[in-house]
Design a protein that fits this description.
The protein is an alpha/beta fold. α7 packs antiparallel against α11, α11 crosses α12 and α15 packs across α18. The longest helix is centred in the middle third of the chain and has 29 residues. It has three domains: 139 residues, Nucleotidyltransferase, domain 5; 166 residues, ATPase, nucleotide binding domain (Nucleotidyltransferase, domain 5), CATH 3.30.420; 195 residues, Carbamoyltransferase, C-terminal domain (DHBP synthase, Alpha-Beta Complex), CATH 3.90.870.20. The protein is 37% helix and 16% strand. Bound molecules: fe (ii) ion.
Length: 566
């Protein structure tokens, strides 16, 4: 079975990806952005991602028993009245007519011909007959991506994002029989729209800058006036309603925030005022309050303390921390590919028995490159390199000496986080090290925090209520007195950290590297940030890694067994 998210026609517009399943498990998966080199690869059929899946299995398209599209466009009809209300809100009669006509065509195509454009484009690339297509709803695919690999036999499942076909947040109950929809929040009552509007108001782009607003939040503080203005306009709690603040388009939503605060949005993000930092704090605070009360309300109703999360809003790891801290919540699983790229993963799980799906222990689903291939690339590029016997100890020594390392190993990660196979590594121990990464490598806002990778056995020493956190999607408080030891990977404003814990069975070489760093320094932690230049997707190939090595201020590049030095 081949599941892919086409972002053309009726199927959404960002984060296309493809995942192939062989007799059950996902065996290969990749985001299309890693091929196009444009972040989120908007409005793209993921042809290269599909081809890579087929190549991995050494099959052609006709060998696939069926295709899954993780989106069901016909469900848009459920919000037809909202769609027309939006079309008729245009300024002039010609515009109203234009949009009403456009939306009518859209709805008809979504109902009767949703697959036509994708099939036509597939035929442009593949000579094979196209396998039968199954469509599953957007939120069901998010829900399956969260519940099926969670390891829970029963759980409350929350899928929270900007929008699916007609729904923006869905509450599910998951058990051995599958997923049952309990409550639906329909578009435009969307927490993704709400946080996206604040993101745009602060000068970032929605669907891209939300993580930065979350990172900015701890620099602000609770501001009564902002809090009262927002909560005076919307309903919070388990039956939240944010529609008074979010409209049909992002511009409309930003306009409502401008009216509410009687000030204009920022044109671009730069030095934020204290008021803007307080806005980030307060928006984050309100998001957390809503999601925690929603979770607690339904934990009581369903009678479980197991919670599984997915959807773009579930990438908000500060919010996830609050969910984890609820006294009604025992265990939480967050799907690491919680954004829409993970729909292809969930799409392939929808039809599977949850009991047959193993608990997810890593996300190394992407391509790898053999030593022979790497050597050939290095030779062709006339690059000098060496192959030390004690690679991990050598690299650990370099990190301890303050070098910035490009670390390229094995199979690429799926999802937005680099987890030790396409990573940039640095010394976690000092603020100067963090500044070096910013100055020479990442070229991003100085106030943004970096995250650590640590051995799972070493985590307890640093994390309050430490538990396994292999995906950098959970935030923890740091054990008092320990923050100074790993200053570069602590959020400077609130002393929290968003770690990746590593076990040998998840990533043997990476675990060994961190253990070697501990041998030298006594600290079982490294700074880990994704291997990409500013605003570029994570590197996929050795060639891209080499290009970034010379285009950025890295000191050393490690590809598989080989080391390149400047
Ligand atoms: Fe989504």
């Amino acid at each position: 079975m081949l599941s892919f998210r086409p972002t053309i026609g009726q199927y959404g517009w960002h984060d296309p990806s493809a995942v192939i399943f062989e007799d059950g498990p996902a065996v290969f998966g990749v985001e299309q952005e890693r091929h196009t080199r444009k972040k989120h690869a908007p409005e793209t059929l993921p042809i290269e991602a599909i081809q890579e899946c087929l190549d991995f299995c050494e099959i052609s398209l006709e060998d696939v028993d069926h295709l899954v599209f993780p989106h069901k466009p016909s469900l848009q009809w459920k919000i037809a009245s909202y769609i027309y209300r939006w079309a008729f809100s245009a300024d002039s009669i010609p515009e109203k007519l234009y949009w009403a006509n456009d939306r009518t065509m859209d709805l008809i195509i979504s109902k009767f011909f949703s697959t036509v454009e994708v099939e036509r484009k597939l035929r442009d690339h593949f000579e094979d007959p196209i396998p039968p297509i199954r469509e599953y709803s957007h939120h069901k695919c998010h829900a399956a991506s969260a519940f099926h690999p969670s390891g829970f036999s029963e759980a409350l499942v929350l899928t929270i994002d900007a929008r699916g076909e007609y729904d923006s947040t869905v509450v599910w109950r998951g058990d051995e029989s599958g997923l049952k929809r309990i409550k639906t929040f329909e578009v435009p009552n969307s927490l993704g729209f709400f946080f996206g509007a604040v993101t745009e108001f602060l000068g970032y782009h929605a669907n891209n800058g939300e993580g930065k607003v979350m990172g900015l939040a701890p620099y602000g503080e609770h501001n009564d006036r902002i809090y009262e203005k927002i909560t005076g306009a919307i309903e919070t709690g388990p039956d939240y309603d944010v529609t008074p603040l979010v409209g049909g388009s992002i511009d409309e939503s930003v306009g409502r925030l401008e009216e509410l605060f009687e000030r204009e949005k920022r044109r671009e993000p730069s030095e934020f005022t204290q008021w803007e930092k307080d806005l980030a704090y307060t928006a984050q605070e309100i998001l957390e309050e809503i999601v925690v009360t929603l979770t607690e309300h339904h934990c009581r109703k369903v009678g479980t303390g197991n919670v599984a999360l997915a959807g773009g809003v579930a990438l908000n790891c500060k919010m996830n921390k609050r969910v984890m801290e609820s006294s009604l919540v025992d265990e939480v699983f967050m799907q690491p590919v919680a954004n829409d790229a993970g729909l292809a993963l969930g799409g392939g799980l929808v039809g599977q028995d949850p009991d047959d799906v193993p608990a997810m222990k890593d996300v190394y689903l992407g391509p790898e490159f053999s030593n022979d291939t790497v050597e050939e690339i290095l030779e062709t590029n006339k690059l000098s390199y060496r192959e030390p016997d004690d690679l991990e100890a050598t690299v650990a020594g370099k990190i301890a000496d303050g070098e910035l390392i490009g670390w390229f190993q094995g199979r690429m990660e799926m999802g937005p986080r680099a987890l030790g196979n396409r990573s940039i590594l640095a010394d976690p121990r000092t603020a100067e090290s963090r500044d070096r990464v910013n100055k020479f490598v990442k070229h991003r806002e100085e106030w943004r925090p970096f995250a650590p990778s640590m051995t799972e056995e070493g985590a307890e020493e640093y994390l309050v209520d430490a538990n396994s956190a292999p995906f950098m999607i959970k935030t923890f408080d740091v054990v008092p007195g320990k923050a100074d030891e790993i200053e570069a990977v602590i959020h400077p404003a609130d002393d929290t950290t968003r770690p990746q814990t590593v076990r040998p069975d998840q990533n043997e070489r990476y675990h060994r590297l961190i253990a070697e760093f501990e041998e030298i320094t006594g600290v079982p932690v490294v700074l880990n940030t994704s291997f990409n230049d500013h605003a570029e997707p994570i590197v996929r190939t050795p060639q891209e890694a080499i290009k970034d090595f010379f285009g950025m201020g890295l000191d050393t590049l490690v590809i598989n067994d080989y080391i390149l030095e400047k």
